[in-house]
Structure formats: C-alpha cells, structure tokens
Amino acid sequence: xxxxxxxxxxxxxxxxxxxxxxxxxxxxxxxxxxxxxxxxxxxxxxxxxxxxxxxxxxxxxxxxxxxxxxxxxxxxxxxxxxxxxxxxxxxxxxxxxxxxxxxxxxxxxxxxxxxxxxxxxxxxxxxxxxxxxxxxxxxxxxxxxxxxxxxxxxxxxxxxxxxxxxxxxxxxxxxxxxxxxxxxxxxxxxxxxxxxxxxxxxxxxxxxxxxxxxxxxxxxxxxxxxxxxxxxxxxxxxxxxxxxxxxxxxxxxxxxxxxxxxxxxxxxxxxxxxxxxxxxx
Length: 281
What we know:
Blueprint: H1 2-19, E1 24-27, E2 35-40, E3 43-49, H2 54-60, E4 67-72, E5 78-83, E6 87-89, H3 98-108, H4 111-120, H5 127-140, H6 142-145, H7 148-160, E7 170-172, E8 181-184, E9 189-191, E10 198-200, H8 203-213, H9 219-226, H10 232-255, H11 259-278
Antiparallel strand pairs: 1-2, 2-3, 3-5, 4-5, 6-8, 7-10, 8-9
C-alpha cells in the first residue's frame, strides 16, 4: 500500500508541474490511476495521462466534453485536459431516453470516428476472433471446463458462428453501462471512458443497451429511435455477443475471486440461453 501511495503522489506531482502552483490536483479514481481533477479559482479541468489520440475526434464531434489541450511530458507520457462539466451519470431509467439511442446511432454512423480508430486499433472484432478468445478461456480455466452451462453456451456460439458475419463494421464503445453516460446541467449528453472501444458489429453495443436497460416490449421502439428496424438477424447477432460478454465476465470474476460477480454473470448467461431457445435464435 505504501508503494502504491508513493506512486500516486509522484503522478500528482508530475501533473502539478504542468499546471503550476495555482492548481489543486486530486486523483479522479479508477483502476488505472491515470485521471485527475484540477481546479484553480473558477477554472476546472479533467486531466488524464496517455489518453488515446481518438479523444480529439470524439471531442470534435461533441461526444465527450471538449478537449482543451494536450501536452507531452519529458518521460513520453501525454496529458490531456478536458472541460470539467457539472453533471451526473444517467440512472437506469434515464437510459431509456431517446437521446441515448440517438447519440449511439451518431457514433455508429460516424465515418470520421471509424477512420481514426482503424488507424489506432489495427484489429477488428470478428466472430472468428471472438470465438477463438472464448476457446482460449476454456482451455486455460479449469472452472470453465467443469460447468455444464458454460459448455452449453460455448456449443451455442460454435453452432451459430456462420450466421454472424455482416457487411459493415462501426466504432463500438463496448462498455455502455449507465455510469459512462454523462448528462450536463445544460442537458448535453456525453459518452465517456473510451478505453475499450473497438471496431466491430454494432450489435455488440445495441445488445448491451437493450438487454440491460430497455424493457423487452420497448425494444422495437428503442431501435426506431436509433434508426433501425428489428430483425431476426439482429437478435441472433446481439445475443451471440452478449453470451460472449457473460463468459468473459465469468472468467474475469473467477480469476479475481469475485464470487458475487461471477454468480451474477452466471444468472445472466442462463437467462440469455433461455431467450435464444424461446425465440429460436
């Protein structure tokens, strides 16, 4: 703990050196320890070390709070400063608002975002490499091999992979929990925390929103706000990727000894397998 605290103090000192003595710097939390809040008189900034170059394009399109400046440190680290806006994360009910569907649609249809992420992220999420990842998990995790539910899920993925390919891929956020949707006091909606963004099937994002936040009776309505009609093929693809998400979640929870989270992922996986069976997906 002492080493961790000393490292954190060193990081804050480095950031303070950029801004000067007039600024108060506080860690913003998070697992990486790379984000900070900075305040001086009436000025406030959100700082982050080694953000992706993708941030500039997101800022230009109004998807994240405005990028103010970018500076490179002597050690090679890059620090970005964004507007620090008064606001709040969306709650579960607010995730059903049409603005969420509209912003996600804007992201998925942006050729500028796609071009930039393809330059940064060389690999695209495909059905083949997704299934290969799950296969790798099974081969190296004893707990996974012993579960009949996980075996059933894997065989389902294997049997449906020929149905998954699509003609067009988009920028997917891949971490659409409600804490990453920020509503400013002026009513502006932002989607933050792009560390997991990948190029792939839009069904990866759509499925997470629908399954986690939208009542099933309203799925067609939400897809209308997004600008898409529901289809059997969309349901097949989104459930396929949702099942992969739960398997990955189980593997991570087991590795981290987080029993409650593992149980939650198992329950969600069981529900998904019932849905694909009931809906003949």
